[in-house]
Model the fold of this input.
Amino acid sequence: PATSMEELVSLCKRRGFIFQGSEIYGGLQGFYDYGPLGVELKNNIKAAWWRSNVYERDDMEGLDSSIIMHRLVLRHSGHEATFSDPMVDNKKNNKRYRLDHLVKDQKAEVQAKVAAHMGVDPENFPALVAALNAEPAKASEALRTSGVRDAFSGEVGDWTEPKPFNMMFKTTIGPVADEESYGYLRPETAQGIFTNFKNVVDSTSRRLPFGIAQIGKAFRNEITPRNFIFRVRELEQMEIEFFCTPGTDEDWHAHWLEKRLSWWEAQGVPRSKIEILDVPKEDLAHYSKRTYDLMYDYPTLGHEEIEGIANRSDYDLGSHTKSQAELNLVASVSENNDSIAKLTIPHPETNKPVVPFVIEPSAGVDRALLAVLSEAFTKETLENGNERIVLKFKPHLAPIKVAVIPLARNKPELVELARQIKNDLQKLGLGRILLEDSGNIGKAYRRHDEVGTPYCITVDFDTLGQSNEDSDISLKDTVTVRDRDTLQQERLKISELAGWIQAKLK
Ligand code: ATP
Done:
C-alpha cells in the first residue's frame, strides 16, 4: 500500500488519473478532473458497486434522479436548517476556516490550551468540537488566548465567533432571478430516492423489504476542501436506501454492515484497514437511530470516513410525506404542508399503511477510488536491484485490462497484427484493451506496471515466423503474455488468447 498521499498525487498526475480542476487558469479549489485512466477506474468501481448491490440481489431497484432539486425538498429534508458546519474567520488575513479542521491542525499543546479554556478533556476531540460549537463567544476567546494559528501560513489569528455556514450550492432556475426562483444542487443523492419512493413502488409493485440504489454527483460547498480527492466540493456518491418494516431495522442494519465490508474486501480494501466506528449517541445526526462509520486508514491522513451506514428510522419518508399526523411516526419531524404524496406502503403482515424504516449505506466514489489506489500501490525491488512501482488492482478494477504491444513500431506487419489482436480482444467486452505502439518495450512495461495493467501481450518477429535462420518456427502465431504481478512471461497461441484472457479477467 501507499505510505504517503504525496506519492499517490504524483502518480495520478504523471500517469493521467487525476488533474486539478480548471488547472490552466490557476485551478479551482475542491474540484478535480478524472483523466484517461481515472475515468476508467472510476467507472469500474461504480460498475462493481452496481453489480453487487443491484444485479446480484433480488430486492433492489436502480434510479438516476436529477441533480438540481426543488428548494422544498431540501427544506423538508432538514438540509436548509442543519446542513452546515461552524466556521470562524481570521480577521487578520480575511480567511475562513472550518472550526474542527482549524483545531485539528494545531499542535498538541495548543489544542490542550483550547480544551483547558473550554473545560473539556483534550483527548476527547468530538467533545471539544461540541463545546466550541455550543459556546461561540467562549470559543473565539479560547482560539485567541491559546494562540491558534493558520496551519499553512503559521500566522496567529484574531478569530471571530464561530458561525454556522450552510454548505449547499444554490442556483437560480429560469430567466428570472427572484426570491422564489432558486433551487439547490443536491448535497447527497439520497433525497432523490426519497422523493421517488412512491413512483418506484407504484411502477414496480415492490413490497417490503426492498431498496433503491443510486450513483451520482453531489455538491457541498466545503469550507476547507483538502487532502486531494478526499474532501471535494463536487463529489460522487453510491447510495442505497433500504426500506424495511419497523422492528426489522436493526437486523437489516447488521446485514448491510456485513455486506458492505465484504464488498470493500472484494475491491482490494481489506477489513484490517477499516475501523468500524459505532457513532456515540451524542454525535449522531438528527435523523439517525444508529450509525456505523467505516473509517479507512488513508495514507498520511489516518482513519477517516469512507462510508457511513445509518439507520435513519422513518425520518426521511416521514419528513416528506403529507398527512404526517395520522402516521404514528417514530422520528421527530417538522411539519410538512407542501407535499402532495403519502409515502406509505402496506405492512407485510397487517397490510395497514406504514412508513418504512430506512437503512442507508452511503459511500463516496472519490474516497473509494483513493482507497483502492492506495491499496493497489506497491513499490518493489526486483531481482536485478531495480525498483518498480506497480498498481496491483483487482483485475475487474484495472483501467486497462490488456496492452497489446508490437515489438517495433516501424514494422507494419507487427503493428497490423497487434491491432488485429487488440480489436478481437476488445470485442470480448472486458473493458479497455490498448494498442501500445510507443515503440520501446521496456518503457511500455514500466508504464503498464504503473497504471496496473494486468497483462501485456507482445507481438514479435517469432509471431510472424520471420525472426532469423535459427529461430524456432514453432513460435509462429504465438505471442508472449507478461503477468503484471509475477512478471512471468509465457508464450500462447493467438487462437487461444481470447479464452485465456477471459478466464483470467473473470
Ligand atoms: P465528513 O464527516 O468526512 O465530512 P460526512 O459525514 O459529511 O463526511 P456523509 O454525509 O455521511 O459524509 O456522506 C456519505 C459519504 O459521502 C461519505 O462517507 C464520503 O465517502 C462521501 N463524502 C462526503 N463528503 C465528501 C466530500 N466533501 N468529498 C468527498 N467525499 C465525500
Notes: Residues 220, 222, 231-232, 235, 237, 305-308, 362-364, 366-367 surround adenosine-5'-triphosphate (CB under 6 Å). DSSP finds 17 helices and 24 strands in the chain. The first strand starts at residue 18 and ends at 20.
